[in-house]
Amino acid sequence: MTTMPVADARAQLSRLIDEAEATHQRFEITRNGRRAAVLLSSDDYDTLQETISVLSDAALLSAHREGVAAIDSGDHLDVDQLTRVMLSAGRQPK
User: C-alpha dihedral over 41, 42, 45, 51, to 10 degrees?
Assistant: First the structure.
């Protein structure tokens, strides 16, 4: 993360936004030498919001942990296996 004073960020705002969008770099903006704000891409912000939502939902977090445990134990299907299961059940995979 790059740190810069608010005056520099203001002068370079358009470039910083372009860079945050293209590279997912985050910029810490200071005022009087102290952290005041962070500039990040809207995609990164949305991802953080989704992560907070998952971590705040006990049932969803539990389901996620169960899924990770199933994958770790080998209890999953690859694409070819899933296709065969769907076809045998009379469903057309998309």
Answer: -120
CB 20 within 8 A of CB 40: yes
Hey, what are 54's tokens?
């998952």
Judge whether 24 and 43 are in contact, CB under 8 Å: yes
Residue 37 per-residue DSSP state:
E
Helix (H, G, I), strand (E, B) or coil at 57: coil
CB 47 within 8 A of CB 40: no
Tell me how far apart the alpha carbons of residues 10 and 38 are, in angstroms, rounded to a whole number: 13
User: 36 φ, ψ to 5°?
Assistant: -125, -35
pLDDT in tens, 20-35: 999 999 999 999 999 9
If phi > 0 it is left, if psi is from -120 to 50 it is alpha, else beta; for residue 30 that is beta
**pLDDT tens sequence across 54-70:** 899 999 989 989 999 99
